[in-house]
Amino acid sequence: MDLIDQLYSRCPVDQIRFDKETPFETLQEHLLKIKDINEYYIKKVLKKIIDLGLYEDDTDWIYDEYVTLLNVTEQDQYSKIDSIRYFFDSTDNNNDKLYVDIYEKPNLISASGTTGFRTWEASLFLCSYILANKQLFEGNNVLELGCGTGICSILLSKLNIINENYVTDGDSELVSNQLVKNFELNDILLKNREQKKIKLQRLWWNEDTIPSDIDIVIGADITFDSTLFDALCQCLLQCLQNCSMCLISATIRNQETIDSFISITKSLGMRIEEIERTTTLKHKKNLLAPIVIYKITK
Ligand SMILES: C[S@@+](CC[C@H](N)C(=O)[O-])C[C@H]1O[C@@H](n2cnc3c(N)ncnc32)[C@H](O)[C@@H]1O
């Protein structure tokens, strides 16, 4: 990843690899752009440049910028919304980079009502699965359950391979606010809405109506709370009246919880099989728990 891409993906500053190819003017332009949304990150990047003694001809500008940010603290940044760029390996022959931008709150671990401001690891694994299995999705109508930031559906839109995309979450505030903004950030909403290809809507499991014209259901990190499993599994069962399979990416934080999900799924007569598993992700260095993709069918 080149230097600018590392900055947009908010690579931890101690891991940034500075290269000789990036001209200072280019770096400067992007530092200023990113500063508009994340001053604390740029403060840390400038400090690293100063510590390493890089860009000697431009130290005046670097020092001046750094001084303007001296009072900015990590806490200041916590209350602000950042935008993170996730890069994916493109399997196309053209050289265009494939990435999705997502509005996030840095360091948000978990808090009720705020999951829309954090991309969970299970969705990144599901994105890799989608990329590796594009043919499965081609020309199909896809429903995403509990989409959160919407990263999987945004990737599907960017790939331009599916027909209709129902992007849903039970949190209507998230759907009308953060989700719309994330689609807009990636410049895909307006164009697709005109063609009625993308529908962002609330879907509370086992309560709201399931669209009838769906082929595949996807969901990431929606198996974190066993009290939701009855509703979730009923919802999956309803989906399978219309579609061929549900692909659920699950972070195995607690084996008992996931066993309970599997057992409720089976008790409702559905088949469930593990089709992928990982303990590593390119986007997150320290993965605390394995992630599994389950294929659920009738
Ligand atoms: C841990 S987040 C995962 C978000 C996203 N899929 C990701 O992996 O980044 C779980 C999501 O499920 C949604 N959710 C929780 N309970 C739900 C329910 N009963 N019906 C629909 N969505 C629900 C939440 O609003 C939240 O966005």
UniProtKB/TrEMBL annotation:
Coiled-coil parts of chain: none
Keyword Signal recorded: no
InterPro entries: Methyltransf_16 (IPR019410), SAM-dependent_MTases_sf (IPR029063)
Name listed for the protein in its UniProt record: FAM86 N-terminal domain-containing protein
Record organism: Maudiozyma exigua
Keywords annotated in UniProt: Transferase
UniProt-recorded Gene Ontology molecular function terms: S-adenosylmethionine-dependent methyltransferase activity
Name of a matching Pfam family: Methyltransf_16
Taxonomic superkingdom: Eukaryota
GO cellular component terms listed in the entry, alphabetical order: cytoplasm
